[in-house]
């Protein structure tokens, strides 16, 4: 086969593979992704019964152990807004006041109840 | 001393800026004295930064709390070993460490090349000093490690408990060494592009630095994984955390580079690719530094939100823009001198391996930054989490392992049927036999990806063993040396090649460990009372008795566990969870304060070649809550009953401290005397030890490849290598000389 034609075929195959990988990545990311809400977004958007991923930092001085529950407030990094979270389950070692966390929550009254074992740092 | 430190930093900035000007002027005018002056500016910067870093470490060792960084990250009770490490646990101290290491490595390369690459070196000096000036200016204008307070506290906040781990002493300097070492090939690549001297010269002088960056960055990543496994209490070693990914991306990129430069050295091909890879590796290293410092993505490693994001974005933008502009301008000079003869050749395997590694970088980059990308597109952050990596990374890792076995076996330029038969028969048979045995004798079929990884791993190990054996046999035939001597001399005379093969074997061992531990682990979350047992992965774990330990720093609650299998005792494990005080929390009482700070886990681990039994306790302190609350009330009542004069008396303060400690010790003793059910996480994970063994083998192979070649051997070696046949060639003796530059 003509070498230039061979090179063109190789280039086409490589670009097609790259395009397929990129498309799969984009599709997977948008299809499997979960919205991360800040404290202020959660306060304005949350509806009872629906679950949301809350992202933010643990408010200093807000961490309490009450019975088997861990109670803390998650602060909006950009604003002075925080929401209370009642969480039960595995608490990662790095969890501490001031640390960034992600936790899946559901609205219950004025508080947000964390899904068991959903807390990550 | 802090004032002296600040002066040293300012001097460092002035010297760096002067050095940039001197180097560029020397390069443009051809005046050697200016070039030498620029080089001496790098040596001076190294001396200044060494002194500045020594002042900072001295402040930590003396617990000088007038330094803000010392009071925020150390205390008088911090062990000396960790006081040294505390210096780089802060944003400011780690930036100083960065520029200190950068200035050391820059001095080393410029000293080694003082009589070589004369056209490229001045531009490289200017680039290295540019990085130096950037990081020194961060410590001068944004995050000074020498900030002080007029009223120092009597006690510091102490080091983050999670960092009280031996590997934390080594892990950050290793990562920073890797990042800073990567700036050296970057600087010389820029110098080569500016001058148009794009042959193998710049690669020859920086190859060892790229290899050293690959080695220390890899060690740093693995130490981080080990820390995660033994310290973080979640049972894993890799969480796809943004900062872990930030270190992995440049490592993958430089792995591609240290392979693909061999094609340029031997065939004059892939010049644009190599330049782009090293420019990309260094940019990714700076991106990693940015991720840790900007607070742009949440991570347990991050230093939190800071004002450093914008300077880093400017630096990264400048690096990308300069890289693209230079590569575009020099595209004609960068044209390949040869073409790929066949897709069945060693060059093609290297190229495929490079594409796989770059695809891995792209996947990790995209998913890591997806929250920011999605926010930019849709206005909302969307996170995809660790499961999103697997569908892409697992198949790519399988292809990578296969190629690491094929690479050493396949011939350069074009393969022949004879070459295929001669070199592939045994390794392919070993891989196939492994697959069949595992299918028949285990449940590996339930996890097809793991089964493929085991088979490919066996193939790689067989291919490396075959190459080593054939090389040793050929050497023995020509020298009559005994087998061990021939083996050692074979490796010693061709370190780059055989060091690389050993690293390939290590990669296979490591990924076999990853495949086994991630596919066949058994995990249980159980609540047990003393005397009760739970089964996990064929083992029985019995909660024998509770244990407690109280120190000034923390209160630990734990359990002694008996591990047995089939009724036979295997081991006794102890796991504890330490609770640290919550400082400066006005909402907590004097007793509850001791139990509401950060917590850390002490894992009960029985590690072995076939499996690890990993246990951690998560004690529920609810049954102590009523006593804790009563203690809070009693101590608050006591303290409010004191007059201000009484409250200031040292004897009264000591008396209160003593009784508070007694109360906490009494609560801890109750945990043992009146035990209640507590929660355990039990994991039986196969072959985790293979990961650490594989990492050690890779590091050993890297060290062999990196080790300097004796001057005698260097004189004997040719100036430039030619395409070689692999060791399998039957009649010509196996080459025992390394291509040396």
Fill in the keyword field for this structure:
heterodimer, A: 121 residues, alpha+beta, OB fold (Dihydrolipoamide Acetyltransferase, E2P), 2 domains, 2 helices, 34% strand, elongated, B: 741 residues, Four Helix Bundle (Hemerythrin (Met), subunit A), 4-stranded antiparallel sheet, 22 helices, 10 strands, 62% helix, globular
Structure description:
- Chain A contains 2 helices and 7 strands; from the N terminus they run H-E-H-E-E-E-E-E-E.
- By secondary structure, chain A is α+β, with helices and mostly antiparallel strands.
- Chain B has 4 domains: 1-160, Four Helix Bundle (Hemerythrin (Met), subunit A); 165-388, no CATH class; 409-520 and 690-716, no CATH class; 530-676, no CATH class.
- Chain B has 22 helices and 10 strands.
- In chain B, helix 5 (91-112) runs antiparallel to helix 6 (120-142), helix 9 runs antiparallel to helix 10 and helix 15 runs antiparallel to helix 17.
- Chain B has 741 residues and is an alpha+beta fold.
- Chain B starts with a helix and ends in a 25-residue tail after the last helix.
- At the A-B interface, helix 1, strand 1, strand 2, strand 3 and strand 6 of A face helix 12, strand 1 and strand 7 of B.
Low-confidence stretches of chain B: 718-741
What do the pLDDT scores of chain B average to?
88
Distance between the termini of chain A: 57 Å
Tell me the major beta sheet of chain B: 5 strands, antiparallel
Could you say how many structural domains of chain B there are in total?
4
What is the SS-derived class of chain B? Answer: alpha+beta
Number of helices of chain B: 22
Categorize the overall geometry of chain B.
globular
CATH class identity of the largest domain in chain A = Mainly Beta
Mean pLDDT of chain A: 84
As laid out across the biggest beta sheet of chain B, the strand order is 3-4-5-6-7
The CATH fourth-level homologous superfamily of the largest domain in chain A: Nucleic acid-binding proteins
Can you list the strand order of the major beta sheet of chain A?
A: 2-4-5-7-6
């Amino acid at each position: 086969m003509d070498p230039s034609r061979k090179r063109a075929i190789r280039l086409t195959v490589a670009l097609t593979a790259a395009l397929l990988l990129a498309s799969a990545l984009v599709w997977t990311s948008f299809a499997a992704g979960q919205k991360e809400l800040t404290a202020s977004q959660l306060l304005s958007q949350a509806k009872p019964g629906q679950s949301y991923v809350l992202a933010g930092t643990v408010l200093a001085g807000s961490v309490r152990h009450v019975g088997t529950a861990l109670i803390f407030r998650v602060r909006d990094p950009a604003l002075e807004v925080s929401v209370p979270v009642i969480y039960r389950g595995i608490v990662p070692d790095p969890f501490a006041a001031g640390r960034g966390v992600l936790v899946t929550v559901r609205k219950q009254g004025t508080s947000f109840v964390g899904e068991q074992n959903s807390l990550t740092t | 001393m802090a004032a002296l430190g600040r002066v040293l930093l300012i001097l460092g900035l002035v010297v760096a800026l002067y050095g940039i000007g001197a180097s560029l002027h020397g390069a443009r005018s051809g005046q050697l004295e200016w070039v030498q002056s620029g080089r001496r500016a790098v040596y001076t910067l190294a001396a200044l930064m060494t002194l500045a870093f020594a002042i900072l470490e001295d402040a930590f060792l003396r617990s000088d709390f007038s330094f803000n960084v010392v009071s925020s990250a150390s205390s008088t009770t911090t062990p000396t070993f960790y006081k040294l490490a505390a210096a780089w646990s802060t944003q400011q101290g780690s930036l100083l460490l960065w520029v200190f290491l950068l200035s050391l490595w820059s001095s080393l390369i410029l000293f080694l090349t003082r009589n070589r690459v004369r056209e490229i070196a001045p531009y490289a000096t200017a680039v290295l000093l540019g990085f130096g000036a950037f990081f020194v200016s961060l410590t001068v204008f944004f995050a000074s490690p020498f900030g002080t307070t007029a009223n120092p506290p009597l006690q510091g906040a102490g080091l983050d408990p999670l960092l009280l781990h031996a590997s934390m002493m080594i892990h950050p300097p290793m990562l920073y060494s890797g990042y800073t070492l990567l700036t050296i090939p970057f600087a010389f690549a820029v110098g080569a592009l500016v001058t148009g001297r794009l042959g193998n010269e710049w690669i020859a002088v920086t190859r060892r630095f790229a290899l050293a960056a690959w080695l220390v960055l890899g060690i740093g990543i693995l130490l981080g994984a080990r820390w995660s496994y033994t310290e973080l209490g979640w049972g894993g070693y890799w969480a796809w955390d943004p900062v872990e990914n930030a270190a992995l991306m440049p490592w993958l990129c430089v792995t591609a580079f240290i392979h693909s430069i061999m094609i340029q050295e031997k065939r004059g091909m892939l010049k644009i690719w190599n330049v782009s890879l090293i420019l990309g590796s260094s940019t990714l290293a700076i991106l990693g530094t940015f991720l840790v410092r900007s607070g742009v993505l949440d991570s347990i490693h991050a230093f939190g939100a800071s004002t450093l994001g914008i300077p880093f974005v400017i630096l990264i933008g400048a690096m990308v823009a300069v890289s693209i502009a230079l590569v575009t301008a020099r595209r004609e000079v960068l044209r390949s001198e040869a073409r790929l003869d066949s897709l069945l050749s060693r060059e093609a395997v290297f190229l495929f391996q490079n594409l796989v590694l770059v695809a891995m970088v792209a996947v990790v980059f995209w998913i890591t930054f997806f929250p920011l990308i999605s926010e930019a597109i849709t206005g909302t952050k969307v996170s995809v989490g660790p499961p999103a990596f697997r569908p892409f990374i697992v198949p790519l890792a399988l292809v990578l392992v296969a190629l690491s076995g094929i690479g050493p076996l396949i011939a350069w330029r074009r393969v022949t049927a004879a070459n295929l038969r001669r070199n592939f028969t045994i390794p392919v048979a070993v891989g196939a036999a492994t697959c069949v045995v595992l299918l028949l004798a285990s449940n590996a079929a339930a996890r097809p990806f793991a089964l493929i990884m085991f088979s490919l791993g066996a193939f790689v190990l067989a291919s490396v063993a075959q190459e080593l054996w054939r090389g040793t046999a050929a050497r023995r035939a020509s020298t009559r040396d005994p087998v061990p001597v021939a083996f050692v001399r074979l490796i010693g005379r061709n370190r780059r090649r055989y060091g690389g093969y050993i690293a390939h074997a290590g990669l296979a061992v490591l990924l076999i460990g990853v495949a086994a531990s991630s596919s066949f682990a058994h995990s249980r979350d159980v609540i047990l009372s003393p005397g009760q047992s739970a089964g996990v992965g064929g083992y029985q774990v019995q909660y024998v008795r509770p244990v407690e330990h109280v120190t000034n720093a923390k209160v630990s609650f734990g359990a002694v566990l008996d591990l047995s299998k089939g009724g036979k005792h295997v081991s006794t494990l102890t796991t504890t969870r330490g609770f640290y005080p919550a400082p400066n929390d006005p909402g907590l009482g004097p007793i509850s304060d001791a139990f509401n700070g950060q917590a850390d886990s002490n894992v009960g681990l029985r590690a072995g070649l076939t499996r690890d039994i990993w246990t951690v306790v998560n004690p529920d302190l609810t049954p102590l809550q009523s006593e804790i609350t009563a203690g809070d009330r009693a101590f608050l009542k006591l303290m409010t009953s004191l007059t201000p004069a009484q409250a200031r008396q040292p004897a009264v303060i000591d008396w209160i401290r003593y009784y508070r400690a007694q109360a906490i010790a009494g609560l801890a003793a109750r945990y043992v005397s009146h035990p209640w059910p507590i929660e355990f996480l039990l994991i039986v994970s196969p072959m985790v030890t293979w990961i650490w063994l594989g990492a050690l083998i890779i590091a050993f192979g890297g060290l062999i490849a990196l080790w300097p070649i004796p001057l005698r051997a260097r004189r004997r070696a040719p100036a430039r290598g030619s395409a070689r046949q692999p060791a399998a060639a039957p009649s010509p003796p196996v080459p025992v000389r390394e291509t040396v530059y």
